[in-house]
């Protein structure tokens, strides 16, 4: 196979950027739309007869259609699927990036604070996928892509299965390492939503410990046996992640948290760990934050996009996870700049006055007894957020290979100025948010802080709400304190009705220094 070949009459192959047991990934150009894409050539196993080969081709097309259902800021989008030269091809979003596995191979175990931020974004994508009835089935470091701006996306939903597609995978097929499999899958049971949660835990475990939870045995059968036994080695370097990892890695699938619960807890851990060590953030660069070389992983899964077929089975749609501490009722305060994408917001909560739409389409956090922090606390929090962003940027900007599309950009960075300038910038950020949100909910979503995104609960609900609004006008806006903007909004619904509301929006700085909306209440 050579570069410059045209696939499906429109996708010109430019450069080979990844390979694995199941296929090769190319950076390509969609000549019809003039955009860069990732094109995955899926291998057919040697020894298949024609009927078996045709089954693989048709299965790949079905998998492509299933993956295309998911449109989320932290998941690679699938654009097209076709058969070319008797081989199946998938066309996906392209993201200049590197995989978490490559990052670990180069740098060794990572700081738990950084891992919590990465895991939060992956959990967000899994939550959306599960809501769409899609099981990823191959969550591992090689399928977690990290862009140069810190955006995290999970790829290779090409082997995912939607509930009800019973013929997708032949029973007994297993390719690639079993190191990140859930014990029940290793024992021959069907992959479920809870299995994805275990694999997420195994991925985060490897990121902080340097090895997967069942070790790094080269013998795949021996490792599969260890996974099936379900005896996880407790982490020793995970720090604040330890308790959550052990819940994610529980042997009983019904006792694991849901992705949404994991997302909230990871966000809380990232914030708490970061804000508690401002001085160390100021002193450390990435090399100082890493675990010593002597404890680095020998795991060498560097392929960012190779798919792995596994035994099929319909995931149980009734699994809801175990009772788990819910961060939704608490405001964790300023985040580690997690406006670079996290969890999806849910449909709007009921309004106190019983009419009209919600401005941000999210349940408002209680702000009745809002405290104004002292100047020293504000400065400390801002410093922690900015330095956390610097740490992440240093960690993630080495290398640029992978298969992912454009990320939701973070708000434009603005310097820290005097109080008057700060308040002016906050008001401008609110006006800017409402000027773009109806036309581009994804861009609006990127202007919400982690707290607001968690309170909201789901990107699908956020999109659904704004799809009913034709326009929103800010008729008045003023900063009523150093982190609150009061805005008068006029909504025009697509059915022609209008409503006027006054909202108070709690504001905070994101990683790049831009203003994000962290909370909202109607007054």
Automatic annotation (TrEMBL):
UniProt biased composition (Basic and acidic residues): 284-302
Stretches for region Disordered: 271-370
The protein's Enzyme Commission number: 2.7.11.1
A Pfam cross-reference name: Pkinase
UniProt GO MF annotations: ATP binding; protein serine/threonine kinase activity
Leader sequence residues: none
UniProt keyword annotations, A-Z: ATP-binding, Kinase, Membrane, Nucleotide-binding, Serine/threonine-protein kinase, Transferase, Transmembrane, Transmembrane helix
Record's compositionally biased regions (Low complexity): 305-318, 357-366
Binding positions for ATP per the UniProt entry: 40
Entries under PROSITE patterns matching the protein: PROTEIN_KINASE_ATP, PROTEIN_KINASE_DOM, PROTEIN_KINASE_ST
Transmembrane intervals: 376-396
InterPro entries, per database record: Kinase-like_dom_sf (IPR011009), Prot_kinase_dom (IPR000719), Protein_kinase_ATP_BS (IPR017441), Ser/Thr_kinase_AS (IPR008271)
Domain (Protein kinase): residue spans on this chain: 11-274
Name of the protein: non-specific serine/threonine protein kinase
């Amino acid at each position: 196979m050579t570069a410059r070949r045209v696939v499906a009459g429109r996708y010109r192959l430019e450069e080979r950027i990844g390979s694995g047991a199941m296929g090769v990934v190319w950076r390509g150009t969609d000549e019809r739309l003039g955009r860069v894409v990732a094109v995955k050539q899926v291998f057919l196993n040697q020894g298949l007869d024609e009927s078996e080969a045709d089954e693989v081709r048709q299965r790949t097309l079905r998998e492509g259609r299933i993956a295309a259902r998911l449109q989320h800021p932290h998941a690679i989008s699938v654009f097209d699927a076709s058969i070319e030269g008797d081989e199946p091809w998938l066309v996906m979003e392209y993201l200049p990036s590197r995989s978490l596995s490559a990052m670990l191979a180069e740098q060794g175990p990572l700081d738990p604070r950084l891992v919590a931020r990465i895991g939060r974004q992956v959990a967000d994508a899994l939550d959306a996928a599960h809501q769409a009835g899609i099981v990823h089935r191959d969550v591992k470091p090689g399928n977690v892509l990290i862009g140069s701006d810190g955006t995290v996306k999970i790829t290779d939903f090409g082997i995912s299965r939607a509930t009800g597609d019973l013929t997708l995978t032949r029973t007994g097929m297993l390719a690639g390492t079993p190191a990140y499999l859930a014990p029940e899958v290793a024992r021959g049971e069907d992959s479920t939503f809870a299995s994805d949660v275990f694999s997420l835990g195994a991925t985060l475990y490897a990121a902080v410990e340097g090895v997967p939870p069942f070790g790094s045995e080269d013998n795949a059968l021996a490792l599969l046996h260890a996974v099936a036994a379900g005896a996880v080695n407790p982490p020793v370097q995970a720090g604040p992640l330890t308790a959550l990892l052990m819940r994610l890695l529980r042997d009983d699938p019904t006792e694991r948290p849901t992705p949404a619960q994991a997302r909230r807890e990871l966000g809380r851990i990232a914030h708490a760990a970061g804000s508690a060590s401002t001085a160390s953030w100021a002193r450390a660069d990435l090399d100082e934050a890493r675990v010593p070389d002597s404890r680095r992983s020998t795991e060498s899964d560097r392929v960012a996009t190779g798919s792995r077929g596994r035994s099929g089975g319909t995931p149980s749609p009734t699994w809801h996870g175990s009772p788990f501490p819910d961060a939704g009722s608490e405001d964790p305060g300023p985040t580690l700049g997690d406006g670079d994408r996290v969890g999806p917001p849910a449909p709007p909560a009921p309004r106190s006055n019983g009419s009209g739409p919600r401005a941000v389409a999210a349940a408002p956090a209680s702000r009745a007894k809002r405290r104004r922090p002292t100047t020293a606390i504000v400065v400390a929090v801002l410093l922690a957020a900015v330095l956390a962003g610097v740490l992440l940027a240093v960690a993630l900007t080495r290398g640029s290979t992978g298969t992912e599309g454009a990320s939701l950009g973070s708000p434009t960075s603005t310097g820290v100025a005097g109080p008057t300038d700060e308040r002016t910038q906050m008001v401008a950020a609110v006006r800017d948010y409402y000027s773009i949100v109806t036309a581009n909910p994804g861009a609006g979503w990127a202007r919400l802080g982690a707290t607001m995104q968690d309170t909201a609960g789901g990107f699908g609900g956020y999109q659904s709400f704004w799809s009913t609004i034709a326009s929103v006008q800010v008729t008045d806006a003023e900063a009523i304190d150093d982190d609150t903007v009061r805005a008068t909004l006029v909504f025009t619904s697509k059915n022609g009705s209008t409503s006027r509301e006054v909202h108070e929006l709690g504001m905070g700085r994101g990683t790049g220094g831009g203003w994000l909306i962290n909370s909202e209440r109607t007054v």
